[in-house]
Amino acid sequence: MAEKKLLRQIARPFVADGPSGVSIRDRLKGLTVQDEQVLRAVGAHMGRLASADLARRCRDGLDHSTDTWAERKREPTTASSSRWAGSVTSNTHDQWGLSRRAQHAHLQSLDAGIATVRHRLSLPVGETGCKGKPGGYRSKSEWFAKTRRLTVLEDRYEQVSVEREAGRVSVVRGGRRLLNSRHNLDAAGLTETSWRQQWEAARWFLTADGESGKRHGNETIRVTPDGEISIRLPAPLADLANAKRGRYVLAAKVSFPHRGEEWRDRIEENRAVAYRIHLDVTRDRWYLDASWTRKDLPMIPLDALRPDGVIGVDTNADHLAAWLLDEHGNPTGSPRRIDYDLTGTADHRDAQLRHALTRLLHWARTTGVQAIAIEDLDFTDSTTREKHGRKKKFRQLISGIPTGRLRARLLSMCAEAGISVIAVDPAYTSMWGAQHWQKPLTSKNRKTSRHAAASVAIGRRALGHAIRRRTTPPPAHQSDVQGHRTAQARPRDRRREETRPRVPGPRTRSVQPDAEPTRATRTSKTVRDVRSDQGWVQDSLLLTD
Fold this sequence. Notes:
Blueprint: E1 14-15, E2 21-27, H1 33-60, H2 66-79, H3 82-122, H4 140-166, H5 176-180, H6 185-188, H7 192-202, E3 207-208, E4 221-223, E5 228-232, E6 247-253, H8 260-268, E7 274-280, E8 285-293, H9 302-305, E9 310-315, E10 319-325, E11 331-339, H10 346-367, E12 371-375, H11 385-388, H12 392-400, H13 403-417, E13 420-424, H14 429-438, H15 450-463
Parallel strand pairs: 9-12, 12-13
Antiparallel strand pairs: 1-13, 2-8, 3-7, 4-5, 5-6, 7-8, 9-10, 10-11
Helix pairs in contact: 1-2, 1-3, 2-3, 3-4, 10-13, 14-15
């Protein structure tokens, strides 16, 4: 008897939390030469202090405490100000924590790779996989190469584990990618001078945390409602001030076309707003970013979102497949395919995602739904070559799906549009969607893809319905043998769909159940027994020559 394959437990759908903060940007136009010189001087000075503080924080490792934090803050305070020092130390703390989390993710990836290689090495050469697990390697040469690969992974895992236990992390101010491009300028399309300019600009520090209750929400970098920008200069650069109390007022002004009213209302109430000034070396443009946190956002319960239906969205490497479902889980209308191109620069990829999500939200507003259902995907452990072997194109396909960036963009854009996001478990959505919905939704004029069927499965799971659709019995057995099966299974009904219980008595409504059938009222079993007064008679000439 074949062993029954057990399915993994499927998590319940939930309403995803909205964005925790807001960030807007505006260009600094009309800066004078002196303004740029002051910004470069302040950025370079505070960048050196930030680099020294980060190095000291890395040396502290796991011995970090409030006392060591306060001690670290004293040194940059004497060379700048207490507010500048607070921004430096808080940014250092966030940077160290991010590196720590990345180190933990790297350990998990190495552990998964080691387990996969050990499993495949334990199997005979050429053995096929089963139950979702990979089989043995194809040849002895590949088996031998993987033994060496296993040794490399184990050594690397041991090294990273020792570093993590000791609290050591690897951090590069300015970015490791930009640092590595220094060794191959031709491939990066840079000269030594242009690389040096980008490297110095990336290591500047012109960030100031907001303070509630202070004037316009920030004392270090202050922006007035009419757009005037003033900077509190560090103590060694106080001679560059052109205003009172050691401040420098820039000639450029900002207006923040996007969310400008929200930002203006916030600073007029003296609520905290953080600012960051940075230079885009490639375009030779200065920008000012304003950001603040959002608290106590209204969260609509899941049961309140379901009566209006949902839009199920299946995420793919080159498009979004979406379908509108009503509250009963029935797909309505036609599916939507929203294409995007994720090749090219990071800015181009981000613009493609924003354009695709904008089209999706416009359609959601037109239909009137309050929620969009999407899979809670995470491919961090599915792109290793140890798991998928030689399937390089498949690994590139998985890596090309923008799960994290799309989820962040979707949450932020849906929060502004007043639409909630329902995250569902991605288990078996593509397989069950194709099994139960692809063929029934295909017609002569419409060919339903596997991805569109998966969007239906995602939407039904978000609505609390089973993915399996209601099936109709064979035409010959719809009423005579098994009875009618037209009742929709309830969301929490775990049993199989069954037939209706047979009610004893005649099938005609003109006769009561307790009445005895007569020759005039009973149903004939053969054509020859039908009486002429019942409305039709079979012509006997058709049965003879």
